[in-house]
Amino acid sequence: MPREFSRSLRVGEQIRRELADLLRSEVKDPGMGLVTVGDVELSKDLSHARVYFTVLGDESAATATATALGRASGFLRRELGRRMRLRIVPELQFVFDDSELRGARVDELIEQARRKDRERGSED
């Protein structure tokens, strides 16, 4: 029977869970907001990880949190190595996931278009 998930997907999911736990319990940076780790994409050789995160707040909160995550990346990488016992612990690159903001913007534009259509319909 073939494997359902590749090794990089399984390791990425485990890294996501461990990072979420570490950020919740171990990282005490005052610049970090309420962070949610959304996804982790690993390179094929598992040496680089792109960690997508969201944060509660506006763009300034996202920028401050990205800076705080960059400062904590060495600590997080070391702790991942201890917890997961990987031979190669990937370099962590944190990327703000703005898909929720873009989705809200698209919803807003659709609602504006609907209002304009209703206004035009009542004028005719």
Short descriptors:
124 residues, alpha+beta, 3 helices, RbfA_dom_sf, ribosomal small subunit binding
Describe the model.
The structure is a single chain. By secondary structure, the protein is α+β, with helices and mostly antiparallel strands. The chain has one domain: 2-Layer Sandwich (GMP Synthetase, Chain A, domain 3), CATH 3.30.300. Helix content is 56%, strand content 18%. A 3-stranded mixed sheet has the order 1-2-3, with helices on one face. The model has no long low-confidence stretch (mean pLDDT 88).
Distance between the termini: 64 Å
Count the helices. How many? 3
CA radius of gyration is 20 Å
Number of beta strands: 3
Sheet bearing the most strands, described? 3 strands, mixed
Fill in the CATH topology: GMP Synthetase, Chain A, domain 3
Low-confidence stretches: none
**Helical/strand content category:** alpha+beta
Oligomeric state of the chains?
single chain
Total discrete domains: 1
> What is the ordering of alpha helices and beta strands?
HEEHEH
**Strands side by side in the biggest sheet:** 1-2-3
Q: Superfamily at the CATH H level?
A: K homology (KH) domain
- Per the principal axes of the C-alpha atoms, what is the gross shape? elongated
**Name of the CATH class:** Alpha Beta
Q: What is the percent of helical residues?
A: 55-70%
Sheet-strand content, in percent, reads 15-25%
Give the overall pLDDT as a whole number: 88
Protein name: Ribosome-binding factor A
GO molecular function, one term: ribosomal small subunit binding
Keywords: Cytoplasm, Ribosome biogenesis
Subunit structure: Monomer. Binds 30S ribosomal subunits, but not 50S ribosomal subunits or 70S ribosomes.
